[in-house]
Write a structure and sequence with these properties.
The chain is an alpha/beta fold. It is built from 23 helices and twelve strands. The strands form three sheets. Strands 6-9-10-3-11-12 form a six-stranded mixed β-sheet, sandwiched between helices.
């Protein structure tokens, strides 16, 4: 199992170094959809202009019409309330109490209901226009975000195919799956909920601010005076939310890694009675996710109430100062009403904007983790003009090869070896001697520290990796089959193979009889419920390797985990595979490699003994001792 501790995600402080650029980089992902985003901006602006900016002015005008009509009930014929108020102001009689004292107010008398009806119809039209614009903007946003996330998920999936094997050694599968699924989905959620609202609320705040200055500069200055208070409240809350969301998604990745490990080793957990330990470990990871999510959500949700508190303070100040201005005659009731609407919109949208920014912190935290993966160092690019291969004979030469996973731990040291076409080379040695590493180097899963590996005299470093791996077939100790039909699994390395070719490979590797006992034969879908044995998996993998027709074959002791009867079938299948191919057999049971053309005994990355089986036994060295130990262990 992969140790989740060794597969930890980058530390929060390491990710923090990239935070200033994360937002810009995420916005850069939107660039291919800029015309759709321009349409989102246009419709959002239309909705703001109609519902947030124009509507309060029209509503204030309706209020003034009602007030003018009421006052006009006691005015001379043909005189309007506005004209009468202007006349009274010109006479210095600006106190409204004095104005009301000169006019007999008759409620409703003199109101121009026809004109008022037209104004209210215009107001309704503005609200309908705002609704339509908002609906279109949200739909366009949904499409744009879906495309962005589609592209982002493809980038992550493609990146995983370009990463060196060493990257997967350092990161658990559960952690990488979390970035591909949870983090990408969280970015989508944040963009979907926040992007259109972010544009709309920003436009609304700026537009309302302009309209407040148009209506009353004094009242607008009062509103602006409270903004620093709002900033002082929102800034630390937002910063705290960002760090908590980063912690949350890191903890989620570790939780997924632990779940993946337990699921893969469920039988082992049950066999050793470690269920309580697993549950306790899960609870610890789950508790960390819960604490980080709770703190992040509480922090982000605290922004909007804080902004609402500032908005309420604004409302009180505007109501008091506005009333005094009305009494002084310098502003009408309708204008105060409009300003109160603008002030409410300003506070509401500013609070919503701060809340959205808080919610976006979760998406940005996930984006950091995604970009960290996308920025990981890839396999070195294939050289320009890489050589191509003709017919491959299979002569393999290791020329003074050295390799280490970490700078201070050599694994392969100055190894030289030549394997002739068609030879079978068995590689034996203690755990950690470098057996599997040697095969991985031949497949170019890792790059050499020094030396060369030649195939038919051509340095594989000068060949495209796909070409190198196309020359090589692999049968691993732990059989790997994907969910699909038997025929699809056999043809995995040669997807265009005909059914006749698939069946021929199955017959040659002794798998045809087993397949025909399955309910649907070669069309049987293999999944967890199929219940095929480890030996049957090995037979299918042998057929897969044979069908791909490799010039070089790597076998990782395919018979080590099967019963005696199945072992005979697997060995016969392997005999068909080995015929005429250069083969490297990573041997765990020495009794299976007696007929190998060459046996290499590795110790700490060096070849300490080489020769045929009997030669090495006669030399009475390390191989002889290893063989004797295995042989005595197998006796009753």
């Amino acid at each position: 199992m992969t140790d989740s501790g060794n597969a930890a995600v980058p530390a929060e402080e390491e990710l923090a170094r990239s935070r200033p650029a994360v937002t810009r980089r995420l916005l850069a992902e939107l660039r291919p959809h800029r015309w759709r985003l321009v349409a989102v901006l246009g419709t959002a602006l239309g909705g703001v202009a109609a519902g947030t900016l124009a509507a309060p002015r029209v509503l204030g005008h309706a209020t003034d019409l009602i007030f003018a009509g009421a006052v006009g009930g006691g005015l001379p014929a043909g005189a309007s309330a506005a004209e009468e108020l202007d006349r009274l102001r010109a006479e210095g009689r600006e106190n409204l109490a004095e104005v009301y004292g000169t006019v007999d107010i008759v409620p409703g008398q003199g109101v121009d209901f026809a004109r008022l009806g037209l104004v209210l119809l215009g107001l309704l039209a503005l609200y309908l226009l705002a609704f339509a614009c908002t609906l279109v903007a949200e739909r366009l946003t949904a499409v744009a975000v879906a495309r962005v996330v589609f592209d982002l998920r493809e980038q992550v999936a493609a990146k995983l195919t370009r990463l060196p094997l060493g990257y997967f050694d350092r990161h658990s599968r559960g952690e990488l799956q979390s970035r591909l699924t949870n983090d990408v989905d969280n970015v989508q959620k944040a963009l979907q909920q926040g992007m259109a609202q972010l544009v709309t609320k920003t436009c609304a705040v700026l537009g309302v601010l302009v309209m407040m200055f148009v209506v009353s500069p004094l009242l607008a200055v009062i509103v602006l005076a409270t903004l620093p208070v709002a900033g002082l409240i929102a800034a630390p809350i937002t910063k705290r939310a960002r760090s908590r969301f980063t912690e949350r998604w890191s903890a989620t990745g570790e939780l997924n890694s632990q779940v993946e490990q337990v699921y893969a080793a469920h039988s082992l957990v049950a066999a050793f009675g470690r269920r309580e330990l697993v549950e306790r470990t899960f609870d610890e990871h789950n508790e960390r996710v819960y604490r980080a999510a709770r703190r992040g959500q509480v922090a982000s949700e605290a922004v909007e109430p804080a902004m609402s508190m500032v908005a309420n303070l604004n409302y009180i100040l505007i109501a008091v100062v506005g009333a005094l201005r009305v009494i002084g005659g310098s502003i009408s009731i309708g204008e105060v009403q409009a300003f109160l609407h603008y002030s409410g919109h300003f506070g509401h949208n500013a609070g919503m904007l701060a809340g959205i920014i808080g919610q976006l912190q979760s998406g940005l935290a996930s984006a950091e983790r995604i970009f960290d993966l996308l920025d990981a160092q890839e396999e070195p690019a294939d050289p320009d003009g890489a050589a191509t291969t003709g017919p491959v004979r299979g002569r393999v030469c290791f020329d003074r090869v050295s390799f280490r996973y970490s700078p201070d731990t050599p694994v392969i040291q100055d190894l030289s070896l030549t394997v002739q076409p068609g030879q079978t080379v068995a590689i034996v040695g203690a755990t950690g001697a470098g057996k599997t590493t040697l095969a991985n180097l031949l497949l170019r899963f890792y790059e050499l520290d020094s030396g060369r590996i030649l195939v038919d005299g051509t340095d594989i470093a000068s060949l495209p990796r796909d070409a190198v791996r196309g020359l090589t077939g692999v049968v691993l100790q732990d059989g790997w089959l994907f969910e699909g039909t038997v025929a699809e699994n056999i043809a995995y390395g040669r997807p265009r193979a005909s059914r006749q070719q698939v069946v021929a490979a199955a017959r040659a590797t002794r798998v045809d009889h087993f397949v025909r006992t399955l309910p649907e034969g070669y069309d049987t879908v293999l999944d967890e419920s199929t219940g095929i044995s480890a030996g049957e998996k090995q037979l299918i993998m042998a057929a897969r390797a044979l069908l791909s027709d490799p010039a070089i074959l790597i076998l990782d002791e395919a018979t080590s985990s099967v019963d005696a009867r199945t072992e005979v079938l697997v060995q016969r299948a392997m005999t068909s595979l080995l015929a005429g191919r250069t083969s490297f057999v990573i041997a765990h049971r020495l009794s299976t490699i007696r007929e190998a053309d060459l046996i290499l005994l590795l110790d700490s990355g060096r070849v300490v003994e080489r020769g045929r089986h009997q030669e090495l036994l006669d030399a009475d060295g390390g191989y002889a001792r290893l063989y004797a130990a295995q042989h005595s262990a197998s006796l009753p």
